[in-house]
Amino acid sequence: MLSASLEQALNDQLHLEFESSYVYLSMSAWFEWKNMLGFAKWMNIQRDEEQFHASKFYHFILDRGGQVKLKSLAQPKWEWGNPIEVFEAALEHEMLVTRSIHALVDQAMAEKDHPGFTFLQWFVSEQVEEEATITAIIDQLKLVKDSQSGMFLMDKELGARTVAHPMP
Ligand SMILES: [Fe+2]
Ligand SMILES: [Fe+2]
């Protein structure tokens, strides 16, 4: 059985995953608006991944006898100056999520909640991947700079992304 405080913290994380999904949906819309359809598709798959993360927390809370308490979503930003700004905002957001996951791990450890600790390990690794992937895209965007052909190629490359996690 979950402690009341861990149930609350897991619900907060569930909420943050849904907010992440909303942030990426807004970024996907911005790219589609700019007719950068590969970037838009990449962001939409990122959105799906966040829905997948949210569903993992949702099921874990319920499997442990906790209650899911959904909250309203904050309005995401919808305007950026250029693609680098979008991905820098995405990286900043992922770093916030990483700090939140680490705080959850600390709490599970402090409470000796072994199932919670084990469940969260997947997210610890996932956050390393998330930050590395987005950092690599920022580095590529910096290399491409104002090259239209470079941006065209990156749009094609990012558009080739496929869904990694099937929705449960
Ligand atoms: Fe996530
Ligand atoms: Fe993420």
Alpha-carbon distance between the two ends: 24 Å
CATH class descriptor name: Mainly Alpha
Task: Choose one word for the global shape.
Answer: elongated
Q: Give every kind of bound small molecule, once each.
A: fe (ii) ion
State the helical fraction.
over 70%
Q: Per CATH, which architecture? A: Up-down Bundle
Report the CATH superfamily.
Ferritin, core subunit, four-helix bundle
Number of helices: 5
* CATH fold assignment: Ferritin
Per DSSP E runs of 2 or more residues, the count of β-strands stands at 0
Biggest sheet character: none
What's the layout of helices and strands?
Blueprint (H helix, E strand, L loop, with lengths): L3 H30 L3 H27 L19 H28 L3 H31 L3 H12 L9
Helix pairs in contact: 1-2, 1-3, 2-5, 3-4
The structure holds fe (ii) ion (2 copies).
